[in-house]
């Protein structure tokens, strides 16, 4: 059911600071709260709806951290353009305020995370939850002209990312993009357990002129590497059977000259240790991917 919303201009940094005491009380004393404000641009949304959505996310995080932990709320701005192939299916191009609610709790399996925004879907025991919390958050974001995404993995934690429209849609300041001087004829192996993201990444690289192979998991990728010449391994970090770091280590033991580039919407947020391997954060633009690939190949 659509909830009646009255969007106004919201000074998000101010709202969050006023809301912080309630967040801390809801979480209890064994959860530390961190607020990272990387923008002061106002958003356009219904304040009561936003507060209800945030409270839902905070309570979910609390329930996922029975032994305590850290809850981080990160606010930044992001320009979505036609290049943002992973976002334009859900968002019109323009300016958005992005709110990440990040916990260090139990996390979810990929199967559970995929269904987390469905109404009445819950993994909580009877009497502990209705299964409407995340569905309401997603509904609020979509009705506000934005969207919501979830990144999670078992035993590492969960990040829910909200996109809300900026109050004013001004013209973005274009950041200089490093254009590769000459594209190498490289063969790239892409590994991702999410079939939709795998397909989009493969198509983007093919469009950029690379020869692309793909695999859904680490073992499948290692088998391919035994039979196919590959210049660059582009792998997701958090995967069920074998992590991207484990795959990279095994692949480079077998092929010492193989270059590696990690990609994740999760590791960059959760502080997962990736060592010295370069990482590109999802969702990425085609131009950002091209630059990251070129730098990894030349590194």
UniProtKB/TrEMBL annotation:
Give every Response regulatory domain span. 187-297
Please name the GO terms that the record assigns under molecular function: ATP binding; protein histidine kinase activity
Give the matching InterPro entries.
Answer: CheY-like_superfamily (IPR011006), HATPase_C_sf (IPR036890), HATPase_dom (IPR003594), His_kinase_dom (IPR005467), Sig_transdc_His_kin-like_C (IPR004358), Sig_transdc_resp-reg_receiver (IPR001789)
What keyword terms does UniProt attach to this protein? ATP-binding, Kinase, Nucleotide-binding, Phosphoprotein, Transferase, Two-component regulatory system
Chain positions with 4-aspartylphosphate modification: 236
SMART domains from the UniProt entry? HATPase_c, REC
Enzyme Commission code: 2.7.13.3
What this protein catalyses is: ATP + protein L-histidine = ADP + protein N-phospho-L-histidine
Identify the enzyme class: transferase
Domain Histidine kinase per the UniProt entry, residue ranges: 1-168
- Known Pfam families for this protein? HATPase_c, Response_reg
Q: Does the keyword Nucleotide-binding apply?
A: yes
Which processes are annotated in GO (biological process)? phosphorelay signal transduction system
Protein name as catalogued: histidine kinase
Organism expressing this protein natively: Chloroflexus aggregans
